[in-house]
Amino acid sequence: MLPNLNEIKARRISAGLTQSKLAELSGVSQSLIAKIESGNIEPSYGRAKKLFDCLTRLKTGKEKQAKDVMTKPVRFVKSDESLKKAIKALEKHGLSQLPVLDEGKQVGSISEKSILAKINSTPGIDVEKTTAEEAMEEALPTIQPNTPISAIKQLLNFNAAVLIVERGKNTGIITKSNLLEQMLK
Questions:
Q1: Are residues 28 and 105 located together in one domain of the fold?
Q2: Position 159 in a domain
Q3: Residue 2 domain flag
Q4: Burial category of 152 from C-beta neighbours within 10 Å (exposed 0-12, middle 13-18, buried 19 and up)
Q5: Both 47 and 101 in a single domain?
């Protein structure tokens, strides 16, 4: 569903565009934009969609993307590595969660919380013999490098981190802490 047509003018002005520039960028005539903004015509769905898509692209284009705030390289543990190694990796890098990988592909995640839960639920656990796989949680969501920060914020409401994947390779990670740092800049 498209937004209300009277939003076209407000969004255009907010983006700092003239009717002519919006026409050029969207492939819709300037006279049609003028008629829409004055309320003299209701455009076809296709033309209205072109205008809104163009205005959305422009807004998103100004917004920072995953590649602008991600941490790299991605620190991880392998599923068959010990909990002790996972704990040391978390401590060494000052992290609270890590992706768990098998042959370069994410199979889950491990966090301070999941490790403590495993330790508390297993009396006498040997952290050198227990594997990361035995304490791992579900995999982190994966996103593209050009994903806008607004979308990442929504994902981080429900996840500890997101993994940035490009052409099948883990290229970065974003945590809630990364977003907070970004807000301070």
A1: no
A2: yes
A3: no
A4: buried
A5: no
Task: Taking the CA atoms of 53, 54, 59 and 64 in sequence, report the sign of the dihedral they define.
Answer: positive
User: For residues 164 and 66, is the Cβ–Cβ distance under 8 A?
Assistant: yes
Which residue would you say has higher pLDDT here, 102 or 1?
Answer: 102
Is pTM beyond 0.90 here? no
**Looking up tokens 């995640």, which residue turns up?**
109
Please state, in angstroms and rounded to a whole number, the distance separating the CA atoms of residues 183 and 180.
5
Q: How far apart are alpha carbons 59 and 167 in whole angstroms?
A: 26
Which of 157, 174, 156, 173 lies closest to 101, judged by CA? 173
Q: What CATH number corresponds to the domain at position 180? A: 3.10.580.10
- Cα angle 126, 127, 128; round to 5: 90
Most confidently modeled of 10-14, 54-58, 111-115? 111-115
Contact residues for 138 (Cβ-Cβ < 8 A; gap 6+):
108, 109
The residues with which 100 forms a beta bridge, in sequence order, are: 77, 108
Q: Percentage of the chain with pLDDT > 90?
A: 65
- For residue range 10-35, what is the model confidence (pLDDT) as tens digits? 988 888 889 999 998 889 999 999 99
Residue 149 has what pLDDT?
84
| Residue 1 domain flag | no
Band of residue 61 on the pLDDT scale cut at 50, 70, 90: low
